[in-house]
Amino acid sequence: MSKAQDPLYYSQLECPVCKNINDFAIIKSGAYSESGRDADFCPTGRVWQNPVYQKFDPLLFFMATCQKCFYTRELNNSYKNWKSDTAFKTYRQKIIQEKHLAEYVKDDGLIKLLGVHLSENDRPFESSIIKLLLGIYDEKLQPRPSNLDIGRYFLRIGWLYRGKGGEAQNIVVGQAGFIAKLRGAAMSANQMIPGYDEKVRNLKSQIDHGFARLFENDGGADEYRQRVEAIMAEISQSVTPLVEAGSKLLAVLDDAKSSLGMEHGSAGDRFFECPSFNDFLLKAKYLWDEVPLSEHEALERSTEYYRKAYETGGQIGQGIQQVQAAYLIAELNRRTGNHADASQFFNQMIRMGREIVNGKKADSSTINFTKKLLETAMDQARLNREQSEGAV
Prior knowledge:
By secondary structure, the chain is mostly helical. 62% of the residues lie in helices and 8% in strands. The protein has 3 domains: 3-145, no CATH class; 169-287; 317-391, Up-down Bundle (Methane Monooxygenase Hydroxylase, Chain G, domain 1), CATH 1.20.58. A two-stranded antiparallel ribbon has the order 1-2. Strands 3-4 form a two-stranded antiparallel ribbon. It has a two-stranded antiparallel ribbon with strand order 5-6. The longest helix is centred in the middle third of the chain and has 48 residues, at 167-214. Residues 262-267 have low confidence and may be disordered.
C-alpha cells in the first residue's frame, strides 16, 4: 500500500507521566466519509477511502494510550502541545503522574487490567472501548476533572456499542451488569463484616485485660465490667449472622447469574483469557462500577456527566454551546427512558434556541445551525411525548 493510500499519519509524543516516546496514529482529513448522523450525533454509516480500514471505527484513534504506562488522553491539540502548556506542567502534571503511577503499579488494578488487553489491529472494537475507559479513568484522576469531557467519552462508548450489537444484546448484557453491580456491593459489605468482627474481638480482649489490670483491687468495677460484657455479647451475636448472611447473598447472586445464562456474559468470541469481551468488562466492573456494559448504561453515564457540566457551569459556554448541551441531555434522557427530564431539557433548549434565532445577534452560520437543531429538537420532543404516553 502506497503512502498516498494510507489514511493515517503518525506523530511522536512524549508521555507526560513516564516520559516514554510514543508514535500515535492520526486520521488524515478526508480519509473516510459518513452517510448520516443519529439524533444524538452518532455516525450512522462510514466508508473509508481505503477499504482495508473498513473494520476500524475512527474512534479507535480518538484516544492516545501510552504503550509503556497506559496513560490515556484525548489526542487533540491540547495534548499534542502539552510541553508548551505552562499551566499543565505547573499545576497538573505532577499530580497526574503520582496518581496514575500509583494506580498503574497495582497488579490487580484497573489500569493494568485494561492496558495489557489492548490489541488495536486484532481487536479494534474492544480496544476502542478500552482506550475510552482508560481515558475516563485518567480524567477522573485529575485535580479538577472535566465533567464535559467524561460525558463526551461515555457517549462515544455508547456509539460503539450501538454500532456493534442490537437491542437484544443490550438487554442481556444489561442484566449481567445489574447482577455484577449487586454482587460487587455484596462483596464490599461482606468484606467489611469479618473485619468488624475481628475489631469487636480485639476490643473485647482489651476490655478484659484492662478491667483485670486496672481494677483488680476495686470490687466496684464489677458492675461496669458486667454491663460492658453484656453489650459486647449483644454485638458478637449480631455480627455472626451477618457474616453468614453475606455469604448466602453472594451464593444466591452467583446462582442467579448461572440460571439466567450469564456465566459468560453474552455470546461472543473469546477475549484473551476470558470467555468473551463481556466477561472481561464484568471483571473490570468489579474493580470500577462505572464501566458500562451496554449502550444504555453508557448513555446513562454520559447524561449524568453532561448534566453536571451543564448545571455547574464553567465548562459550557453561553449561547450555542449551552443550546447544544441542553439538546443532547434531552435526547440522551429520551433514549434511556427518562422522559420527564427529557421534556424539561427539550423545552429549555427550544426556548434558548429561539432566543438565538430571533435575537439576530449571532452570525448567519450560527443562526442556520440553530434553526436545524431546533427542527430536530421539536421532532425528538414529539417522539419523547409519544414514548412517555405509551409507557404509562
